[in-house]
Amino acid sequence: MEELSAVDSEAVIATRGLTKRFRGGQLAVEDLGLRVPAGSVFGFLGPNGSGKTTTIRMLLGLIEPTSGTATLLGRPMPGAARSVLPQVGALIEGPALYGFLSGRDNLIRYDSADPAADPRTRRARVGAALDRVGLTAAGSKKAKAYSLGMKQRLGLASALLQPRKLLVLDEPTNGLDPQGMREIRSLVRELAADGTTVFLSSHLLDEIEQVCTHAAVMAHGRLVVQGPVAELAAGARGRLAVTTPDPADAARVLKELGVTDLTVTEAQVTGELPQGDVDLADLNAALVRADVRVRSFGVERDSLEDAFVALTGEGFDVAG
Ligand SMILES: Nc1ncnc2c1ncn2[C@@H]1O[C@H](COP(=O)(O)OP(=O)(O)OP(=O)(O)O)[C@@H](O)[C@H]1O
User: Fold this and answer.
1) Is 301 or 46 the better-scoring residue by pLDDT?
2) Is ligand 1 within 6 A of the CB of residue 112?
3) What spacing in Å lies between the alpha carbon of 50 and ligand 1's midpoint?
4) Per-residue pLDDT tens over the stretch 105-133
5) Which CATH architecture has domain 2-234?
6) Which of 241, 242, 188 is closest to 212 using CA atoms?
7) Is 22 in the pocket of ligand 1 (CB under 6 A)?
8) How far does residue 230's CA lie from ligand 1's centre (Å)?
9) From the CA of 144, how far away is ligand 1's center (Å)?
10) Is 93 close to ligand 1, i.e. is its CB under 6 Å away?
């Protein structure tokens, strides 16, 4: 078992051939090889139904894989669950809260259920966790009076009662308003700055771009791509945009130079840059030589969303 950690000691989560077929025959996750580097904020991205929750449940030892292996903090799951899980904070599905108890009392109750938690230091631990998520002032309010964002933060506080090497968050901003989303995102950044590896699933691309250092993209139970977010976004080519009072002439020149998928409007031409190395200065010079008057000239950087669509040929169910 120890060789597993020797193979990839810097990976906090590593899976090989991880597969889950449910009893009804539904193949939810297929041959997944995931690698989550230590210290990363890792976005696990995919449309609804692409297998994210099923993967997370296998990682945490809540369900058995049909085949393949998973290691968490270098130890095999589900075999090492008893020694590994105390170092992992998890928030999957909405947090289970007692509405009639205050936020603070919810955490006290949660902490009391942990046999390893010292009762003498409980109040201090709960106070620190409330402080961590910015709920100190609201700590004595009943949880049922909390906004969704506050409930989600209280759930995070419960995952932070003990020091954690890894936090696993399943759709932590689902159902939150923009302000609630921002709060969770900044909390995730703070936790990562303290050295905690954060693995979070989301179906929102811009969220992943804003907060994650690394990402993996799932579609139909399979891994499409994984790596540093900056590299994933660079995977898609940029789109050239030229603003000009002579769009027809500009389009003709650009076409001759290999620009494809041209779109011409009254004052602008956009198109896909040709494959390979293209010097934008040459394109601009060619336009000028052909007496095309250029007001602005540039490449619109593709987002991770463009990269995703290019890779999978599908978009996201953003409403879902
Ligand atoms: N217990 C189960 N029994 C049978 N099929 C299941 C079960 N759980 C999930 N599935 C199916 O497996 C596939 C992947 O589901 P999963 O919940 O892992 O996706 P997801 O990416 O987490 O989506 P969501 O964000 O909607 O939870 C879906 O087609 C789902 O219907």
Assistant:
1) 46
2) no
3) 7
4) 999 999 998 888 999 999 999 999 999 88
5) 3-Layer(aba) Sandwich (3.40)
6) 188
7) yes
8) 29
9) 29
10) no
> Quick one: tokens of 116?
């390893």
Burial of 62 (0-12, 13-18, 19+ CB in 10 A): middle
Residue nearest to atom 30 of ligand 1 (CA): 49
**Which amino acid residue places its CA nearest to atom 24 of ligand 1?**
48
Between the CA of 61 and the centroid of ligand 1 the distance, in Å, is: 16
Residue pLDDT, tens place only, 289-317? 999 999 999 887 666 666 667 666 665 54
Cβ 151 under 6 angstroms from ligand 1: no
Which pTM does this prediction carry?
Answer: 0.77
Whether residue 78 is preceded by a cis peptide bond, meaning omega within 30 degrees of 0, is: yes
**Where are the chain's structural domains?**
2-234, 239-301
Q: Are 168 and 56 in contact (CB under 8 A)?
A: yes
What ipTM was assigned to the predicted interfaces of this complex? Answer: 0.94
Atom 11 of ligand 1, residue of closest alpha carbon: 28
Query: What is the reported pLDDT for 314?
Result: 62
Angstrom distances, CA of residue 71 to CA of 33, 156, 212, 320: 11, 23, 21, 30
State the fold for domain 239-301: Alpha-Beta Plaits (3.30.70)
Which residues, in sequence order, are CB contacts of 311 under 8 Å at separation 6+?
217, 224, 225, 235
**Ranges 109-113, 181-185, 198-202, 264-268: which has the least confidence:** 181-185
